[in-house]
């Protein structure tokens, strides 16, 4: 059994040992952000990095009551829309068993799911998307920096809310599938903006 000093979260070895614990224990790290809070903030930072690399911008929200974490905007004039934008609900996980050869499986609580798909009847002015960031199980692998590069082994999968059923019969969770081909990259973000700007519907 590791001693308290060996579980020092300020060292890479200590952080790795903490990360290997159960979820409740992982959140009890003295003097550090809980691991779930780190996952959330890394997902926000990852999204911002891709967004700004694509030349787009991010609008923040004081609360996520409406099920929106960020709104991503473009300044480009497309065929139908000047400055398209979309709302993004973000999730993060280290559960690699949710990823198979075809898609990322994600169980959503019914309340945020209904907020996400609300407006699938065409009433929603700003399209909604879901993004799930898959982080390495080992927290010491989340971000690495040296003189030449910044590396993260994280990847985010996305799907348009319009691709999900508008109703669910579940009272607890509704499982959604995000295609593995929907990788949140600069190129795919620009394609999303183009589709919205040209009024092509969900990508």
What is the topological layout?
Blueprint lengths: L11 H8 L3 H4 L8 H19 L3 E4 L9 E4 L11 E9 L9 E7 H8 L10 E7 L9 E2 L4 E2 L3 E6 L12 E7 L6 H12 L6
Parallel strand pairs: 3-5
Antiparallel strand pairs: 1-2, 2-3, 4-9, 5-8, 6-7
Structure description:
There is one protein chain. This protein has helices at residues 12-19, 23-26, 35-53, 110-117, 186-197; strands at 57-60, 70-73, 85-93, 103-109, 128-134, 144-145, 150-151, 155-160, 173-179. By secondary structure, the chain is of the alpha+beta class. The strands form three sheets. The protein has a five-stranded mixed β-sheet. It has a two-stranded antiparallel ribbon with strand order 4-9. A two-stranded antiparallel ribbon has the order 6-7. Residues 1-5 have low confidence and may be disordered.
Radius of gyration, rounded? 18 Å
| Largest sheet entry | 5 strands, mixed
- The backbone outline, from C-alpha atoms, is globular
Proportion of residues in extended strands: 15-25%
Q: Total number of helical segments?
A: 5
The tally of beta strands, per DSSP, is 9
Structural class: alpha+beta
Q: Going across the major beta sheet, what is the strand order?
A: 1-2-3-5-8
Question: Which sequence of SSEs, written as H and E, runs from N to C?
Answer: HHHEEEEHEEEEEH
Proportion of residues in helical segments: 25-40%
> Span between N and C termini?
50 Å
Overall average residue pLDDT: 87
Weakly predicted, low-confidence segments: 1-5
